[in-house]
Specification:
This protein is α/β, with parallel strands linked by helices. Helix content is about 35%, strand content about 15%.
């Protein structure tokens, strides 16, 4: 979709002017990451989400025509933005055979949609941003739109990708590669992310971290009236450095209230094990899971785009952008210093 960055093009114009008027005393303000982050707007997210969570997508159940249509929507977006597919040859679909899904609902193959912006300095180190694009489908005429779950994470990834592409177009592309991984099969058992981690397009040893976004458009009833929070889960589980970086970035750029309630090992919800980041974490790839908490429309046909808090969602998406930017551009690759050894003990936990 078309970008909305008037102030950025003004800055570029100013920059160009200064080249032709070198003795001018006026120093043009330089373009920064903040300008790119600000291209992630509530309006853009809203436009994308109304389209992506539309009734025409039929609830995006894995291996149905609605899911395939949603996949095409994502591919069209990336092609339009001139962001290449991550598969060899530039394709976007990572095909997952039907038999991989141990589910009676799945009658055909399905696919992850994967795009990449290659790093300019360390292209063989990867930051994987993920969100699942499948949902639970429809029952008769009742469509489960899944606007928050996980239309919100899906379109946030698109806007983040667009912001990184704009940076690249201005010679400020990420130094490490950013992979945009839209996984299928989450609702029926985290299949798409498991398939990716078992058949990684880029080696997991070279995967610096996974930032997973699953439901960032709503406000938890326990947080009623709070339009400035997000739950973070898992940030300190494998890498203290990732956790500290995330805290610092938030303090400097976003000032959101980072709530770690669900990061507690004893939390009965066990959200750490219930979305796609877990398949990375169990392979010792450091992760952060971004989450708004559950609400009355969770997995109901009433999870619709009109109920999304778009300004809050844009703040959350900007935080993820800034965190990815920092991980991608800082001199040293972050270290996973708290490796886990009990990698398979929780595999049966499914969302
Ligand atoms: Zn979800």
């Amino acid at each position: 979709m078309k970008s909305t960055i008037k102030h950025l093009s003004l800055l570029i114009a100013l920059g160009a002017m200064s080249l032709s008027a070198q003795d001018s005393k006026e120093q043009p303000e330089s373009i920064s990451r903040i300008d790119f982050a600000q291209t992630i707007t509530a309006d853009d997210l809203s436009q994308l989400l109304y389209a992506f969570a539309a009734d025409s997508m039929q609830g995006r159940m894995t291996a149905t025509p609605g899911q395939k249509k949603a996949a095409e929507f994502l591919v069209d977006f990336y092609k339009n933005e001139k962001i290449t597919g991550a598969l060899p040859g530039g394709g976007y679909f990572q095909n997952i055979p039907k038999d991989y899904f141990k589910s009676k609902y799945v009658k055909t193959s399905s696919e992850n949609v994967v795009a990449i912006i290659p790093g300019s300095v360390w292209p063989q180190e990867y930051i994987v941003l993920s969100a699942h694009y499948d949902h639970v489908g429809a029952k008769g005429d009742t469509i489960y739109n899944g606007a928050d779950d996980d239309g919100s994470g899906t379109v946030a990834l698109l806007e983040i990708a667009q912001a990184f592409k704009k940076a690249q177009d201005q010679g400020m592309g990420p130094k490490r590669s950013i992979v945009f991984l839209h996984v299928t099969g989450e609702e029926i058992g985290l299949y798409g992310s498991r398939y990716y981690t078992e058949n990684p397009i880029y080696p997991l040893e070279q995967t610096v971290c996974n930032l997973n976004t699953d439901m960032i458009g709503r406000i938890d009833p326990n947080k009623a009236g709070n339009d400035n929070y997000i739950y973070l889960i898992g940030s300190d589980k494998l890498s203290q450095e990732l956790h500290d970086l995330s805290e610092n970035v938030n303090q400097e750029f976003s000032q959101l209230e980072l709530d770690y309630t669900f990061n507690d090992e004893n939390d009965p919800n066990r959200f750490y094990y219930r979305s796609d980041h877990y398949n990375f974490a169990k392979n010792n790839v450091p992760i952060i899971f971004y989450f708004n908490g559950v609400h009355e429309d969770y997995h109901q046909p009433t999870d619709t785009p009109d109920k999304i808090e778009y300004p809050l969602m844009s703040k959350r998406a900007q935080l993820i952008f800034h965190t990815a930017w920092e991980v991608a551009n800082q001199e040293k690759r972050i270290v996973a210093d708290k490796l886990n050894n009990s990698s398979t003990s929780q595999d049966s936990n499914k969302k």
